[in-house]
Structure formats: C-alpha cells, structure tokens
Amino acid sequence: MTTSPILIFSFATDLNSNYFLDDVSVTLTTAPSIQLLNNPSFESSTTIPNGWVVWCDYTCSAGGGAAVTWGTNCYLSTANCFLVDCPDTGSGAIVYLGQSFPATVGSTYRIGFRLRMAFGGGSFSQTQFRVFIR
Predict the structure, then answer these.
(1) What is the dihedral of CA 15, 83, 55, 125, to 10 degrees?
(2) In a domain, 130, yes or no
(3) Is the CB of residue 21 less than 8 Å from the CB of residue 114?
(4) pLDDT tens by residue, 84-123
(5) What is the distance between the alpha carbons of residues 62 and 79, in angstroms, rounded to a whole number?
(6) What are the C-alpha distances in Å from 72 to residues 20, 49, 53, 111, 133?
(7) 82-119 CB burial, b ≥16 within 10 A, e <16
(8) Is residue 126 in some structural domain?
(9) From first to last of its 134 residues, what are the pLDDT tens digits of the chain?
(10) What's the distance, CA 61 to chain centroid?
(11) Are 121 and 18 contacting, i.e. CB atoms less than 8 angstroms apart?
(12) How many helices (DSSP H) and strands (DSSP E) are in the chain?
C-alpha cells in the first residue's frame, strides 16, 4: 500500500535567533541513493522554496520571514538554504515547512537534514525546532 506522508519542520522563534535548514533528505533504506523529496537542498529556488509548502510565515513581522537564502550560513557556506528569521516578533512566532513524499507501508526510511541556529544576542533563547511526519 502506497501513501503520501508529509515531512514537516516547525520553527518557533524568538527575537534573538534564526534558523538555516539545508540538505534535507528522505530515502528508502534499501535504496539510499534515491531521493524522495523535490528540491531537497533548495537549489532550484530563489526566494520561495519550490516543491515545499510554507505556512504561518505571516507571524513574522520583520526580518527575512521564511524564505530561501544563500551564503555562509548555509551548509558548506555555499549555495541555497531555507531561512526562518523573525527578529522583532518576540517569543512565539511559528513557521512550518513541509513536503509530501511517496512511501510504502512496512518500508523503512531515513530522514536527514542540516540545521544551523544563529543566536543574535540577548541572555538566552527560547526557540523550539521540531520535525514531524504526518
């Protein structure tokens, strides 16, 4: 039986932090060279992450919000990555990023990603990052 689960990343930000997500991967353990996601490293995107769905980014009132960026904060300091940047919202701004992928019930999959959290100041950070399969 084939299904379409959704890989969901949840970024809860505060005024001191932002996230850089890169190199996302979903593979079948018996076929690790076959990528099941579209645009897993955001390379075929400019500002909107093609192949992905972003929601609740309206909670960001300043900063970059939720968009594709590039540069030294991305994995290996080159190419594109997904940025969540909500510096002036205070605690509680949440951004979700998701994509469905084909799966077969009873099979085992490997999920991987690279995440960098940049701490911009203040005495502490109350951010939360979560990964869900729905």
Answers:
(1) -30
(2) no
(3) yes
(4) 887 655 556 788 999 999 999 999 999 999 999 886 665 5
(5) 24
(6) 10, 18, 24, 24, 29
(7) bbbbbbebeeebbbbbebbbebeeeeebeeebebeeee
(8) no
(9) 999 999 999 988 766 678 999 999 999 999 999 999 999 999 998 888 999 999 876 666 555 678 899 988 899 888 999 998 876 555 567 889 999 999 999 999 999 999 998 866 655 666 788 999 99
(10) 19
(11) no
(12) 0, 11
128 is a domain residue: no
Tokens of residue 81, six digits? 């990555």
Letter string b/e over residues 3-15, b meaning 16 or more CB atoms within 10 A of that residue's CB: eeeebbbbbbbbb
How many domains does the structure of the chain reveal?
Answer: 1
For 26, the domain range is 2-121
Tokens of 20: 């850089």
Q: Which of 98, 14, 28, 25 lies closest to 59, judged by CA? A: 14
The CA distance from 20 to 1, in Å, is 35
Q: CA-CA distance, 75 to 13, in Å (whole number)? A: 20
**Is residue 88 domain-resident?**
yes
Quote the pTM value.
0.87
* Ramachandran angles phi, psi of 13, nearest 5°: -110, 165
Look at the block and give the residue holding tokens 């999959």. Answer: 109
